[in-house]
Amino acid sequence: xAFSLFKRSGEKQPxxxxxxxxxxxxxxxxxxxxxxxGEGGHIKELKLFIASDADDKSIYEGAVYVHDKQLFxxxxxxxxxxxxxxxxxxxxxxxxFTEQFPADARxxxxxxxxxxxxxxxxxxxxxxxxxxxxRILSGEAEKEEYLIKATDPKLNxxxxxxxxTENGSFRLNQLVFPGESRDDSNKYISRQHAHIEWDAESxxxxxxxxxxxxxxxxxxxxxxxxxxxxxxxxxxxxxxxLNEGDQVILGESAVFLYSTVAER
Length: 264
Hints:
Layout: H1 17-32, E1 43-50, H2 57-63, H3 69-82, E2 92-97, E3 106-107, E4 113-119, H4 120-128, E5 131-138, E6 145-149, E7 155-159, E8 162-164, E9 170-172, E10 175-177, E11 194-199, E12 204-209, E13 220-223, E14 230-233, E15 240-241, E16 247-250, E17 254-259
Parallel strand pairs: 1-2, 7-10
Antiparallel strand pairs: 1-4, 3-4, 5-6, 5-17, 7-11, 8-9, 11-12, 12-15, 13-14, 13-16, 16-17
Helix pairs in contact: 1-2, 1-3
């Protein structure tokens, strides 16, 4: 059950953005202080998990600078510098709003926050076994849910199972919206609409628009769960990272949800 930010245990003063940020940073500091000597150089990834309820989410978002993630990373870097924790130049920080914490996460006592530190070996292992789910919200696809893995080849998205490309070869789609469907949302999905692939460097899935997913009426768009913004893919060369709860819109109204959490 989520803790309420509007009433502290034993206190009358509710949490605000500043005090919440200070509490979270203090928690991170306590975790980092457990690192001894040069061990900080082996840390590749810091992950902060927040499982707040809807009423408190905006306060948490402000506390971790969800609209400018570099600011919160800078705060963590200051802590590392103050305690001579030599994090490597390419260390990363991810903040994820989730419904449940990983089993290995260290949890805060009185807030819906948990923290994980991963070494390079752990990150490589976690990446190799990473899975996610694509759930159809609008439009008719061959399946209601698709499981994708980091080890899979790229997943092509489009209308019908195959399409002839400009050079005469065939493109095979794995996430298929049948062309004969009576669902109007399928009409505006191109045969070569988009694809999803695993990016080893950033260790996350990326979505790219293909030739048919760039024109205005067929535009590939992403509704960002973290801040509610809408991103349009205007080029086939520049992809966008997918995060928990993001919704991908194909054409005018076909939509699928990206999630790393299996449905119960």
